[in-house]
Specification:
475 residues, alpha+beta, hpI Integrase, Chain A, 3 domains, four-stranded antiparallel β-sheet, three-stranded antiparallel β-sheet, 18 helices, elongated
Amino acid sequence: MPNIAEKSKVFGGKGVVLSFTRAPDVFLYRELIPGTKKYRYKVIDGANTLEAAIDKSLDAYNALRSEILEHAQEVAIRKAQYEIETNSPRRRARMITENMVRSKKVSIRKCLNNFLDEEQKKVDADLLKEKSLQNKAQGLKQLEKYLSYKGIEKTHQIDNNTFHEYITWRKAKKSTRRIELIYFKDFLIGYCKPRGLLINSLDEKRLMPKIVIKESEVDANPPLIEEGNWNLVVKTLKQMIKNRETGRGPAKYSVKGKGVYFNQLFYRWCLICKNSGLRPNIELNKLRWCDVKRENVGRWSKSKGETEDKWIAIIYIKDTKTGKQRAVPTNGVDSQLLEWRREQKEYLSRYYPDQKIKDTDLIFGNPANEMKQFPYSMFNTIWIRMIELCGDELKPYVFSDRNYTPYSLRSTFICNLILQGKDIYDVAKLAGHSIAVCERYYAKLDMGRKSKELTEIEYGIKGRKKTIMGSYLED
């Protein structure tokens, strides 16, 4: 057998990544066929170091799955036939254990740690977002708590009925429980099952209970499109700046005017979010000055004999939730960015005169922390305070009983485009949504928009000048 140059175990020792001295730059994945002393090999393409080979070993592992399983089944059948033909004493024992567990007995905690280590490798290889891993790790904490409650410590103890009680045991929103069950299934079926850690009779279709979420429950971020709502929000935001209101009430003391700065930032942040439709935390808070370009789309004025300027801001989103990059031409954002840049310069010249803003700096960065992101919790806190100050004047969205959230600014952008009669395909591209999601908004809003033509009765003199709407509670 050739001499081994480098070698490392992978997948908890199930396989090995190695290279031989005769070709040290060629790495292979090796796995033992169960029930034999024979190995199967697969060349790992595109890897010339051991670290790279380990990162890419998953593809080789998956490529060998069907081949190894077929050989293992053939070996098991041959052994069983031999024992039957020779009337082996082991035959009776085999018949008794035929329907029993044949999985490895490994602790839940050890498996979870190994699984998260594998997921971390995906993050390091830029195959998974750090935030996605954090969410998954947080969700899997509930798995460990629940299995402990059920008295289950090993993977082989999990059966088809294990999780049926979870949806009543776990006290959380339906959407939270639903995503947690997805994390559980990913861990059990995606990680444990290929490694033989679960019982053979486990049915992945029956494993997790189903949680049905109604359409009304999906609308967690109602838009601010009810008449007067947006004007009230803008008025309240301005009042908060004037009165130095923060998320915790009036500011009593502020080092270097941080409270005033964040209030001003939050005001511009809300307006730009509503006029661009960016996802508040993962897109708007990561937006840099170099990601926005100004463009003059002015037109020739025949009466004036000159070109009338009209500047717009085009926002380029490179890193999105869906993985699709997009360019968003906007109305109203250019003036807001100019005003914010002026306000930011004034603040820096007063409190941080040595700090210069670079193109690569975040637009809404924190000057006291090297222009890094503010914690998203600060935006949530001051948003809640703003909604409280709006009080009962803020009308609820007709299709939802949910509270308004910072993501309501994005919903408002989408709904306004639909109400303006924009093509649904264009709306989906601008928002970075699928057409199916935009159609859910569209179906409800379009009928509201058509209410006049669907209910109007022709009598008397035609042509009302204005459609007047009101509430049944008004006098």
